[in-house]
């Protein structure tokens, strides 16, 4: 069987990327990394024929996966010999999925991102402010951040309180009472871990181990588990952009191709079939970065298109349906009309 090499394109300070970094570490899945700048341009990503601008991006063989919400379930399917992290009972799966939705769609991460300390060196760089404006779709200014800070703190307090007084209230070590951290812990912890570790983000008189003892102890336990796993696995190999692209282009492995669900309302409305040219973009952030390619498959969970790398090799881009817009490609006419 062809080898499935795994490469994670990320930068270490990215809280979303940590979701996948931690998952790979806790399961001990062998992989390489391709480190990226904190802002655009990202030539290594463009080299793959990818317009999507968000981090992390994960490649497995010749398949490239956007979004941690697709990457984690895909990784869950691989390496059956390594213990999985995902929940097994329907009730526990529900907790796992609801935590993901609460933190990401419920806006907890978005509120945490509003608490970035205003004295961050990056904020002195006008290019960074412009880049984050492109990312969010509206101007990114320090004045606006300062103004919404009290509201963001109120929202984050709700998040800390929820974990402290419900899921962790009985003193359990891990969300699903597992022996080790599970996917539900990753889904619940990543934003609170990030914002509580970001010096100057949270006022100490309102957010501390005294105020939220169970949450702070859980974050610490989680970090210790990840540190131990990373020490056991050793550091992933770091590839430069060209090396990473060439591993992907040379790979003989593709995920088994699925079909286009003919009854899917979007397929019906847009008149799509296998081979139709479509565009894909996220619906929340990074919306202006559209990938255009040939539709290979579409179902309720995932859409897959085929694109060409800068060297003319074909790769498959996978995006989740949730949070992504798929449209028949009109040659960019609608975008041009907006200008
Ligand atoms: N829903 C996406 C969100 C990814 C995301 O927003 N990542 C941030 C980094 S933490 C990003 O791409 N920021 C803009 C950038 O780095 O260009 C996911 O789960 O992967």
TrEMBL record:
Protein name: GST N-terminal domain-containing protein
Species per Swiss-Prot/TrEMBL record: Hypocrea atroviridis (strain ATCC 20476 / IMI 206040)
Family annotation (Pfam families): DUF7962, GST_N_2
Domain annotation DUF7962: ranges: 112-230
Source organism superkingdom: Eukaryota
Coiled coil: none
InterPro entries: DUF7962, Glutathione-S-Trfase_C_sf, Glutathione_S-Trfase_N, Thioredoxin-like_sf
Domain GST N-terminal: from-to ranges: 13-77
């Amino acid at each position: 069987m062809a080898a499935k090499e795994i490469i994670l394109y990320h930068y270490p300070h990215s809280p979303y990327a940590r979701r996948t970094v931690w998952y790979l570490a806790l399961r001990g899945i062998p992989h390489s990394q391709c480190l990226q700048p904190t802002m655009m341009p990202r030539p290594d990503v463009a080299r793959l024929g990818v317009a999507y601008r968000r981090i992390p991006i994960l490649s497995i063989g010749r398949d490239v996966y956007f979004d941690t919400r697709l990457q984690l379930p895909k990784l869950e399917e691989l390496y059956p010999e390594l213990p999985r992290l995902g929940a097994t009972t329907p009730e526990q799966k529900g907790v796992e999925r609801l935590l993901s939705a609460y933190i990401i769609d419920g806006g907890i991460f978005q509120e945490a991102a509003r608490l970035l300390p205003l004295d961050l060196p990056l904020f002195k760089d006008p290019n960074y402010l412009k880049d984050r404006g492109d990312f969010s779709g509206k101007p990114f200014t320090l004045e606006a951040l300062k103004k919404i800070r009290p509201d963001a703190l109120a929202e984050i307090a709700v998040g800390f309180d929820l974990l402290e007084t419900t899921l962790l209230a009985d003193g359990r070590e891990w969300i699903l009472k597992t022996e080790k951290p599970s996917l539900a812990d990753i889904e619940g912890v990543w934003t609170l871990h990030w914002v509580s570790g970001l010096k100057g983000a949270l006022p100490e008189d309102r957010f501390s181990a005294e105020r939220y003892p169970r949450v702070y102890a859980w974050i610490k336990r989680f970090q210790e588990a990840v540190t131990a796993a990373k020490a056991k696995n050793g550091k992933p190999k770091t590839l430069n952009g060209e090396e990473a692209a060439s591993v992907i282009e040379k790979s003989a492995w593709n995920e088994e191709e699925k079909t286009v669900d003919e009854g899917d309302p979007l397929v019906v409305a847009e008149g799509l079939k296998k081979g139709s040219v479509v565009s894909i973009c996220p619906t929340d952030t990074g919306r202006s970065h559209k990938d255009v390619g040939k539709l290979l498959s579409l179902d309720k969970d995932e859409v897959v298109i085929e694109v060409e790398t800068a060297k003319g090799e074909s790769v498959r881009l996978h995006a989740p349906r949730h949070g992504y817009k798929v449209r028949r490609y009109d040659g960019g006419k609608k975008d041009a009309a907006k200008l």
